[in-house]
Amino acid sequence: MFGKRIQVFKLFGFTVYIDLSWIIIAVLITWTLAAGFFPYYYQGFSVTEYWIMGIVGAIGLFFSIIFHEMSHSLVSREFGLDIRGITLFVFGGVSEMNEEPDDSRTEFFMAVAGPLSSIVLGLVFYGVYRMGIQAGLPGQANAVLNYLAVINFVLAVFNLVPAYPLDGGRVLRSALWKWKGNLRWATRIATRIGAGFGLGLILLGVLNIISGNFIGGMWWVLIGLFLRSASQTSYTQLLMQRALSGEPVRRFMKKDPVTVSPAMPLDQMIHDYFYKYHYKMFPVQDASGNLEGCITLDRIKEVPREEWDRKRVEDIVSQCSEKNTVDPSMDAMKVMARMNREGVSRLLVTDRGHLEGIVTLRDLFAFISMKLDLEGEEGVRNIPPESWGR
After folding, report:
1. Rounded to the nearest 5 degrees, what angle is found at the Cα of 101, between the Cα atoms of 169 and 327?
2. Counted domains in the chain
């Protein structure tokens, strides 16, 4: 889901990241508040004051989204789920789970935690806003406090819409899951509603644009496009999980991977391997078949071009670690999740330091595509339910 991201801080054991897409949205939100919202509803301030209000309002929204997602994460941890962190991206934030909830009850409590936290935070901001009026705080401060109260209530209401992957959609999925005992069916219904809701927002945005509200209309269109894409992707991810979960990665690995010698000159390696195979990573093995590590495109780029003919692979080889190796018995779905987390498409499959093969993201996707093409959605039913979550 994510592109490049920046680690911001850690809180309660969770790492908070900002996806680069969110920075663009943060700038747009600041501009919208400073040039549109605050001047329209609160007149009489200077341009500089409006921009300060816009910046503070955007920071407050940033805090509100983190508070919302942190609530999801804390509840998830209470139910024993592993949360990698929280990432703010283009239209909000998401708690990154290594696994889906085990039952509908866990799904329900995880989902409602977010909207309830936004309501609580909205009440806090509103209370401070009312006290600010009584205490005679500057009008600029009260305007920002009132905005933050309102926006948290809006976040709560919007997230309660029963359209997956919004929190309300997760509540709906938990209810359908409880009713039928079928997670796939519940997810399919909830994601279809989510896709339909996204389409409705797109149409609403188009109507706003036609009526002259271009900025507001574009926001609705963009949010609708995102929700529609996210809901459709969520169902696909569930099918992927059911197809791969319980399958050891050794089933998908290539047993005779292309390897390079540590004594090979760097310029030869580049021309005979990187330019020929187009991989971004190769395992490095000596003449006896011992795994020395791996060499990556990023490491190559650190070496000045004029030194390519003077250096050897062994001079820049990287040691094997958990970031570039997996055990052959590891669950294939967890391997795919690691690839997504680390931003890599190839991992070495090793057993006690010995190279067994290489698994690639392309191979995993090829298996999923073939299985769905031959057997359809029903074809993944042969995976035992206990292996992917009830």
Report:
1. 130
2. 2
371 and 266 Cβ atoms separated by less than 8 Å: no
pTM: 0.69
What gap in Å lies between CA 235 and CA 192, rounded to an integer?
9
Q: Cα(199)–Cα(205) distance, rounded to whole angstroms?
A: 10
For the purposes of burial, counting CB atoms within 10 Å of the CB of 24, is it exposed (0-12), middle (13-18) or buried (19 or more)? exposed
Q: Which residues pair with 351 in a beta bridge?
A: 354
Residues 82 and 143 both lie in one domain: yes
For 325-368, what is each residue's pLDDT tens digit?
888 888 887 788 777 767 778 888 888 778 888 888 888 888 77
Q: Which residues is 282 bridged to in the sheet?
A: 295
Same domain, 334 and 205: no
Kind of pairing between the strands at 14-19 and 83-89? parallel
For residue 111 the two structure tokens come to: 């989902």
Give the position of tokens 């698994």: 359
Q: Is residue 257 part of a domain?
A: yes
- Buried b vs exposed e over 124-159: b needs ≥16 C-beta within 10 Å? ebbebbeebeeeeeeebebbbbbbbbebbbebbebb
Positions of the chain with pLDDT lower than 50, given as ranges: 1-2, 381-390
Residues 144 and 56 sit within 8 Å (Cβ to Cβ) = yes
In-domain check, residue 351 = yes
> Mapped to the 3 state alphabet, what secondary structure does 77-93 carry?
HHCCCCEEEEEEECCEE
Same domain? 121 vs 240: yes
The sign of the dihedral angle between the CA atoms of 374, 375, 376, 382 is negative
Task: Please state the φ and ψ torsions of residue 3, each to the nearest 5 degrees.
Answer: -100, -135
